[in-house]
Amino acid sequence: LIPISDPAIDFLVVKPGDVSVYVESGAADIGIIGTDVLRESGADVLEPLELGFGRCRLVVATPSGAAYPALQGGITPRVATKYPRLAQAHFAAAGRAVEIVHVGGSVEVAPLLNLAHWIVDLVDTGNTLRANGLVEQETILECGAVLVANRASQKLKLDEHQRVMQALG
After folding, report:
1. What is the DSSP letter of 108?
2. What element of type H or E holds 86?
3. How many other C-beta atoms can be found within 10 angstroms of the C-beta atom of residue 166?
4. pLDDT (tens digit per residue) in 34-81
5. CA quadruple 139, 126, 17, 97: dihedral positive or negative?
6. Cα–Cα dist 9/133, whole Å
7. pTM of the predicted model, to two decimals?
8. Are strands 134-143 and 56-63 parallel, antiparallel or unpaired?
9. Which three-class secondary structure state does DSSP give residue 60?
């Protein structure tokens, strides 16, 4: 619960992927979003505050015993993920060609069904990976909840933004 008793503050609950759209466009002044979703969106917003919850990591995982970081015979690996931009950027930065397969859910079953060789997905405890015979190979991004702000709103409503940040901090 946030102890803000300001009737001028309205709260709106939207899907995580929409938070950056509303904030970047100015339809919302501030929002709370996971860094995974924010980085995937590429939104041009400010990040004035890490909130200290929702900690997890975006990782590359493979079936246990699978070849990594390259497949034998020069095969281009297929990588299933909900994060195609982040996955492509990660592999490109390492100079590794991959084919990205964008899936909306149940990423961890993609190797079991031969949809992909590897996956890029969020991990907290790793239990879901282990349950599906997968092992973490490398971390792409440490994630957590952050407060994001519209650039213009941050300047125009600085006092209000600071009050919210103090209440959240």
Report:
1. G
2. helix 84-93
3. 10
4. 999 999 999 999 999 999 999 999 999 999 999 999 999 999 999 999
5. positive
6. 47
7. 0.90
8. antiparallel
9. strand
